[in-house]
Amino acid sequence: MQLGSVTLIFLFIFSLLPSQYGAEVYNITSSHPLSDGETLVSPGLIYELGFFSPKSSANKYLGLWHKSIFPRKYVWVANRDNPLADIDTLASLRIGSSGSLELVDGKHSSFWSTNISNCSSAVLLDNGNFVVKDVMGAVMWESFNNPSDSLLPSMLMGYDRGSGKQNFLTSWKSENDPSPGIFSAGLSAELPAQAFIWINGSTPHWRSGPWDKSKFIAVRSMQSQYVNPFTLVDNETQGTRYFSFSFDKIPGDVVFAYGDISSVNV
Ligand SMILES: *[C@@H]1O[C@H](CO)[C@@H](O)[C@H](O)[C@H]1NC(C)=O
Ligand SMILES: *[C@@H]1O[C@H](CO)[C@@H](O)[C@H](O)[C@H]1NC(C)=O
Ligand SMILES: *[C@@H]1O[C@H](CO)[C@@H](O)[C@H](O)[C@H]1NC(C)=O
Ligand SMILES: *[C@@H]1O[C@H](CO)[C@@H](O)[C@H](O)[C@H]1NC(C)=O
Ligand SMILES: *[C@@H]1O[C@H](CO)[C@@H](O)[C@H](O)[C@H]1NC(C)=O
């Protein structure tokens, strides 16, 4: 009896908690923008997207973080180049009249946009991919194809030679400044494939050694994996080359972080 009522009280308190920390929503539509103070959560409450201001910064960004990692690690930031003012509490992420998903300040000036004219809804998936869909539910834009500084499990890092599209990572300028820093990480074009960290986009700073079927030969921490979580797919016909790793085989899901990209964390 006693135990039963304690459990009930606990459940009740837990079910009240989310609303004390600002509203959580599961979907952005043209009639339901995401306002500052609200967050978009993935169905299993794994990832969360919302507004944040880095410590001692007067800037505000739209970013995405793992809900249960503290202190928060922002794995994707939308307006890296174009911060909102921290004091602007009327900022929102909305599907505008142009049909694009856009980040606007209190005066409705755009600070970031997907530049796509038929967006209908936006949701966050449990793998951390923020996807924007058209009215038929087809994915029109996704954060996994527009990476910031972090590679999450099941994300593809690499390039498409045909379109010239590169899914490379770029470090933050500093710990409290998400604007693009000098380090970038990606795959080289020659064979065999190698991962590189470049300075200023061209000066090699670190390289992984060649890919050897299941790992980069010079990355020590890759050698000891009992179950191989890494994949590199080189598709000559398609002109694509992508590296990825799968979930729950590696502790921690963040490969590159901040300006200190030199200590590669794979
Ligand atoms: C989000 O809203 C759109 C448009 O109303 C709807 O088609 C879709 O099913 C919704 N998705 C979720 C996860 O609620
Ligand atoms: C949208 O277009 C603007 C202006 O051309 C560009 O600066 C911005 O990077 C684009 N946004 C995305 C997400 O590609
Ligand atoms: C939205 O636009 C894309 C390309 O711009 C197109 O492939 C897709 O069919 C459009 N969706 C709808 C529902 O019109
Ligand atoms: C990178 O660019 C910055 C700014 O232009 C410059 O000061 C620095 O020397 C460059 N570093 C390298 C290794 O190219
Ligand atoms: C390469 O791409 C082609 C065309 O999309 C596809 O048919 C083929 O299965 C791919 N090969 C590999 C090894 O993924």
TrEMBL record:
Signal among keywords: yes
InterPro entries referenced in this protein's UniProt entry, alphabetically: Bulb-type_lectin_dom, Bulb-type_lectin_dom_sf
EC number: 2.7.11.1
Record-linked SUPFAM superfamilies: alpha-D-mannose-specific plant lectins
Pfam families: B_lectin
Signal peptide extent: 1-22
Parts forming coiled coils: none
PANTHER family referenced in this protein's UniProt entry, alphabetically: BULB-TYPE LECTIN DOMAIN-CONTAINING PROTEIN, NON-SPECIFIC SERINE_THREONINE PROTEIN KINASE
Record domain Bulb-type lectin: where: 25-145
Species of origin: Rosa chinensis (China rose)
Alphabetic keyword roster: Disulfide bond, Glycoprotein, Kinase, Serine/threonine-protein kinase, Signal, Transferase
GO MF annotation terms: protein serine/threonine kinase activity
Protein's UniProt name: Putative non-specific serine/threonine protein kinase
Keyword Ion transport: no
